[in-house]
Each structure stands twice: as structure tokens, then as C-alpha cells.
Specification:
The protein is α+β, with helices and mostly antiparallel strands and 170 residues long. The chain contains 3 helices and 11 strands, in the order αβββββββββααββ.
Amino acid sequence: MRNINLYGWGLGLLLALAACSDEETNLAPQEGNATMTFRLSTRADEEVAASTEQHTHLYVAERLSEHSGIDNTTGDVEIPLYCDKDFTIEGNSYSVTNLLGQWYKFAFVCVPDLEGMLNAKGEDFNTYYIDYEPVLEAQAELNNSVDQDLAVYRKIIDRWAIANSILEEG
């Protein structure tokens, strides 16, 4: 029985060592352009996009090796999310073209037409945020909140763009 346990542990250790590798995964962008098309709708009606009292934005973030740095606490290489693509969406669909074949993070944000809702400054995607204070202030004045669409919608998705292809999502 003891030999079976030793063989079991030895086999487990061998499998664990075989699964580990020093090879780094190549995440370099693929050559060629990709296009991604997204359809926007509400859950109630697939043909309706956001109301005219709201602003819909699409932020496209990616990891660029030239923006990498070293994490001071762990010593690991850290590649932040870089965002220089901000699109205002009107209607219920949008196409993003000329993407490299690589991983992207897409953030769809729909906010009321109130001053100061979106705080997307600079190119570090992790610092972007939605300020809910204008909505809370508008809701405090009941007369305004009845007449205005004060809903805030957001959807964050990760997708791989494949070079020389078109991806359509609905």
C-alpha cells in the first residue's frame, strides 16, 4: 500500500512539473486589420438604442508593451490598459475598424445628458470612472427625475480581434 502511495505522489509531481514551462506566450499583435461590429439595444426591444437624452460612448483599451513597467510591490512586469479610442455612438450599431489582431477591452457606457458624468481623462483606462453624483442630485429634485431618463448603462467585454477578419456581435 505504501508503494502505491509513493508511486501516486511521484506521478502527481511528474505531471505538475510537466505542466510548468518557462516559455513565454507571444501576445504580439498579428499583422493585418480587423473589424468589429456591435449592435446596441435594450433588453425590452432589440431595435431600440439609448434614448436621445443620453450619451453613449465606446472606449477601446489594449495592452501595449511600450507602456509596460515593473510593479514595485511584486517585481512583476505590469502592462496597463492603454485607451486612446473614444467613440460617441449614435444609433443602434457601431463598427470599429483598423484593429490589430490582438486582445481588446471594450467599454460601452450610456449616461444621462448631465454635466460631469464621464471622467475619462488621459490614456490609462484603469483611471476612467462614472461620477454618479449628477444623477443623485437630479433624482433629489423629483420634478427633474420624472421627466428625464436618468438610467446609467455600462457593459464591459473582452474580445480577441483576429487579423483580416470581421466580427459581428448583436
